[in-house]
Amino acid sequence: MDDHDHRSLGNRLELFHQQEEGPGMVFWHPRGFALYHLIEEHIRNHMRAAGYREVRTPQILARKLWERSGHLEKYGDAMFSFEQADGRAWAVKPMSCPCHIQIFNQRLRSFRELPLRYAEFGSCHRDEPSGAMHGLFRARQFTQDDAHVFCTEAQIESEVERFCMLQRRIYAEFGFPEVEVDFSTRPERRAGTDAVWDRAESALEAAARAAGLDPIRQEGEGAFYGPKLDFHLRDRLGRRWQCGTVQLDFVLPERLDAAYRDEVNGKAVPVILHHAVLGSLERFIGILLEHHSGRLPVWLAPEQILVASIGAAQAEAAGAAFAAFEAAGLRAVLDDGPDTLARKIVAAREAAIPIVAIVGAREAANGTVALRRHNGSQQILTIAAAIRQVRTEGFSRE
After folding, report:
1. Pick from 53, 87, 161, 388: CA 20 to 30 A from residue 203's CA?
2. Rounded to whole angstroms, how far apart are CA atoms 4 and 208?
3. Which of 18, 93, 117, 146 is catalytic?
4. Known catalytic residue: 3?
5. In this predicted model, what pLDDT tens digit does every residue of 182-225 receive, in sequence order?
6. What mean pLDDT do residues 302-313 have?
7. Catalytic-role residue among 144, 167, 304, 314
């Protein structure tokens, strides 16, 4: 396995592992889950600022819901389902959209409430063939940053535009400034009439143009319920990865009886926009690891700074510096053991910790640290100045 393969990096950096007792599943280790949580929180904060309200929905639902939505017919072979002794049939959710419609349907909404935006880090399960699984890139259990907007047809263009702007900003923060977009049209197996698809494709393509996109048309690649925009990123090796999506859906709201009160107090069916920035968090982490060869920028590094004493006499000062870094909210680790400084620096490099704060006799006496980076550059700073420096780098998204 290539040293730049995310599976090798996951093992070497002690981020995650997979094993045959959980095929297609991920065992997240402390460092890996710290990275997972950082990415989740970053997306969560952006979504909250964009007006999305977070929800949580069940993992297991009656199979009849998936029959009504059409997912069982389309994805039944890839769904984990079972029957109880009393004959009740259940399925583990492969996606969250029917669940969000259930929240919307709990009362009759007013047009004044639209657009209504829900977001969920939804844990999904799909029974992928064993030969198709590939580390974090193709797994049976994964988390989608699912979002759904319930809106009117008149609101489609503005909602698509605002989400596309959000996506591009987030991708740039993760180090992917260039985004390529595909526009996927009606597939052969689909729900809804041709008239509905004509309307949906026309609306989504117009919204994409209004958002400043020039999408590549992909005939027949849409979702079974509507056309979609797929967002592709290119990594440092030039590989193209499909991540986010915007899907326009006139079908599921009607199938699952979604409705709202319109301006004349009649009942109307909302439009649903299915959104995701990253798609699968697991897959995106795999892309990030390979894109950066495991050396994540300071703001994403599970451990941002290693505080290392040169000798036993500096252990107390190193401990104080470590405590100050932690109190400032930095992700710090302490190495005040008997190894040589050279060995401690090598260990930090092997663990892909971007910064080492060295405490020797001079630093201990002066209340300073020597900040050292992977390229060998070094700065002597007071602890307060070092905290400011690392925090600045830790907040940088460039």
Report:
1. 53
2. 35
3. 146
4. no
5. 999 999 989 889 999 999 999 999 999 999 999 999 999 999 99
6. 96
7. 144
- At CA 154, angle to CA 149 and CA 160, rounded to 5? 45
Q: Is 134 a catalytic residue?
A: no
Active site residue 228: yes
Biggest alpha carbon–alpha carbon distance for the chain: 79
pLDDT single digits (tens) 225-251:
999 999 999 988 889 999 999 999 999
The answer to whether the beta carbons of residues 148 and 273 sit under 8 Å apart is yes
Output phi, psi for 135, to 5 deg: 55, -135
Residue 360 tokens, joined? 């020797």
Q: Is the pTM of this model over 0.85?
A: yes
Contacts of 118 (CB under 8 A, 6+ apart): 52, 53, 54, 55, 100, 103, 104, 147, 148, 149, 150
Residue 325 CA to residue 319 CA, distance in Å, equals 10
**Active-site entry in 168, 228, 275, 283:** 228
144 annotated active-site: yes
β-bridge partners, 333: 306
247-267, pLDDT tens digit by residue? 999 999 999 999 999 999 999
Q: Is 125 tagged catalytic?
A: no
For each of the domains in the chain, give its residue range(s) and CATH number, in order of start: 6-291 (3.30.930.10), 305-395 (3.40.50.800)
The residue count of the chain comes to: 398
* Six token digits for residue 74: 């389309």
